[in-house]
Amino acid sequence: MVLAVDIGNTNIVVGCFEGETFLFTERMSTDHSATVLEFTVLLKTVLELHRLTDTVFEGGILSSVVPPLTGILREAVCRAANVDPLIVGAGVKTGLKIQLDDPAAVGSDRVADAVAASSLYPCPVIVVDMGTATTISVVDSKHTFLGGLIVPGVRVALDSLSSRASQLPVISLEPPKKIIAKNTVDCMKSGIIYHTASGIDGVIDRIEEELGESCTVVATGGNSAKVIPYCRHKIISDGQLLLKGLMLIYRKNQK
Known about the structure:
By secondary structure, the chain is α/β, with parallel strands linked by helices. About 40% of the residues lie in helices and about 25% in strands. The protein is built from 7 helices and 11 strands. It has a 6-stranded mixed beta sheet with strand order 6-9-8-7-10-11, with helices on both faces. Helix 2 links the parallel strand 4 and strand 5 (about 85). Helix 1 crosses helix 2 and helix 3 (about 110-120) packs across helix 7 (about 240-250). It is globular.
């Protein structure tokens, strides 16, 4: 049994897998001020909820895009699960050829997404990960990570709009009733959902044009379920894509 932890800017995702099966996945808020003890208590609580407190873990793996929390969560995993997790980063085997200006600078979340997508779905593949930022990554038919795009996430864009325009309220991220809205709140919902969906469709078109071939498209991330249904391209939703990538990376690095 292996414990997997992904530290994102907004949420920390915790999962546990045994063989090919994920036993659970849970999300908790990314608290930049939390201590090792506080994260240890949270992890122990998650394990207790799933009746895994007395489990002897084979190992652990951790990815992070929040460097100040990487060491803190590593120690918390050590204390909660009694394993020292593998940290996804430079020197870790992924099975991908990373064709970037600085391969070491690519986010570990994008690497894990790309590993899972290129292993589980036909290549070339485009990965759309909709979290705090929306990242779009491309892996070609030779399993080469070509790069991609990073844009503000839908929640970041919506919050920015509300904070900078005094007459626009803070609203929840919900699907609009229709694209031509009749009031301010529905106009904002329609704008953020349809504008984002159209942008994703347009980027997919341009990537396929640049590659000269059609691609499989896979979406993941906390906001994907609210936007992807409004895209016109066929897009596969896989909410566990990143954790699946961590599982595959963990296995590639076992002796």
